[in-house]
Each structure stands twice: as C-alpha cells, then as structure tokens.
Write a structure and sequence with these properties.
Helix content is about 55%, strand content about 15%. The protein has twelve helices and eight strands. Strands 3-2-1-4-5-6-7-8 form an eight-stranded mixed sheet. It starts with 5 loop residues before the first strand and ends with a helix.
Length: about 280
C-alpha cells in the first residue's frame, strides 16, 4: 500500500501535513506527487521531502492512482473541471478534503462514475493530532477505503460515517470544535488574570489544563461525565464552579452553537454546489 502513487492537488498547509505524516509513517516519497501554481511553495516542499513536484494539476494526476484534492472549496469546481478528462481516462480514487463540497457535485464536475471519498479533517491535523471523518460513495472498493483511511490517519484519528449528511454534524463538532476549545482557553486565561495571576502564568495553566484534561479523557475507558464526577468533590470548589456553568445554560449554548454551525455548513454546500 505504501508504494501506491498519490497526487496531492494543492501544496497548502493540509497537504504539507498529510505528506509529512505519510512519509514519517513509511510511505515511499518517490510515490508521492504534488502540484501547485506557486513555484516557491512547491519547491520548498519537494526539496525538503524528496517528492515529485508539478506546476500542472493534470500532469500530477496522470502519475497517480489516488488523487487528494487539497484546494479551497471555492476552487474545487474549477479544479474538478480541469481534471475531468484525466479522471475519466485513469479512474483513480479521488479524495476530497474541501469542506462543504458534496460528493454529488464533485462527481458532476469530474464527469461522473468515479470512486470518491469525502473527508472532514480539522486544523489540529497540522500538528498530527487531527480528527477526520470520512464518507465513501458506492464505487469505492474496500482496498481503496483502506488507502483513504491510512492517508488521513497520518495526521491523527480517522473514522467513517455511514451517511454523507453526517459530515455536517462532524463539521459542527470536530471541524469547528477547535475554535470552541480555544475560546474556553481564552476565557480561562482572562479570568485567571482578573483573579490576580500574571499573564504568562494564566496562559500556561490554561493550556496545560486543557491538554491534561483531553489526555485523561483519551486514555480513560470512562466517558466524560464519569471523569467530571470523579474530579468534583461534594461541597468543594469544583462543584460550586460547575453549578454556575450549569445554571448559566452552558450545555444549551454549546448545542445551539453546533446547530448553527451545522446549518451554515448546509447553506455553504448549497452555494458551492450551484456552480
């Protein structure tokens, strides 16, 4: 599998992270191609990692069995049309990480009848700590599913969803989720300063607390509710703080925020698909 020829269309941050993760995981650099119109960005990536660089998307696509579309969502219509002839000729597996672009629209732009996988990664993938959900159409074989999963696992967790519509919920949870966590960290820092801590101390304590709590949850077999209860002593400081958060409607706010994100994802998909 790690000799399979891959072509990344676009050499932005996510492509760089995926390629770096794949090579670190043992993928043969000689089997990896990347295309980008920016010669400096392309040269820096190929020179550092020893992969093949192309200034033309179709040239890269002709060299590969798997295409990974790493362009911005608003560019995918144009790129799909550009690649349609090559895709129809070679029938590669096509993996899209473009947020909000439905497979039906991508299929139409590529000329139809293609094995397609749509992924929803998040920004922690840039530090190999991402969470990615994948959905495959019926044309994708089991072997191709394994390839797609291996590619996304190079930058963190990868899991499959059964329906494409579930990716809108994924967008609301893990796609936008890092921003929710950053907001909580920001609020902890601000409150810590207001309570008398120095700025640097408040920041480090907030960051390490968020990291430590996430690591505890990842390494535990218990769910978050049980872990919360275990660190909440009856009549103690944590119980008092949680009481304020619950009375303030924190759960409702988070749910409403995720509903708003999901609904916006659907609206954007409609707009992008109108091209």
């Amino acid at each position: 599998m790690k000799q399979t020829a891959l072509a990344f269309i676009g050499a932005g941050n996510m492509a760089r992270s995926l390629i770096g993760g794949l090579i670190a995981d043992g993928w043969d650099p000689a089997a990896i191609h990347v295309s980008d119109p920016d010669p400096e960005q392309l040269g820096a990536l190929t020179g550092r990692l020893g992969i093949h660089g192309h200034s033309d998307n179709r040239s890269a696509a002709r060299a590969a069995e798997v295409l990974v579309l790493c362009v911005k969502p608003q560019q995918l219509h144009e790129v799909g049309r550009e690649l349609a002839e090559v895709v129809q000729e070679r029938r590669p597996l096509v993996i899209s990480i473009a947020a909000g672009v439905r497979l039906g629209d991508l299929q139409r732009w590529l000329g139809g009848d293609c094995p397609l996988v749509r992924c929803m990664p998040n920004t922690p993938a840039l530090v190999q700590s991402g969470a990615t959900a994948l959905f495959a159409n019926e044309a994708v074989s089991s072997a191709q599913r394994d390839i797609a999963e291996n590619i996304m696992r190079a930058v963190g967790l990868a899991l499959w969803v059964e329906e494409e519509a579930q990716l809108d919920a994924v967008t609301a949870l893990s796609g936008s989720g890092p921003a929710y966590i950053f907001l909580v960290i920001e609020a902890l820092e601000e409150a810590g300063r207001e309570l008398g801590l120095e700025e640097g101390s408040a920041r480090l304590l907030a960051l390490q607390t968020a990291f430590g709590a996430a690591r505890m949850a990842l390494e535990s077999s218990e769910d978050a509710a049980v872990l919360r209860q275990r660190v909440t002593s009856p009549g103690g400081t944590t119980e008092k703080a949680l009481e304020v958060l619950e009375n303030g409607g924190l759960r409702t706010l988070i749910r409403d925020a995720m509903v708003a994100a999901r609904d916006r994802a659907r609206e954007l998909a409609d707009q992008l698909g109108a091209a």
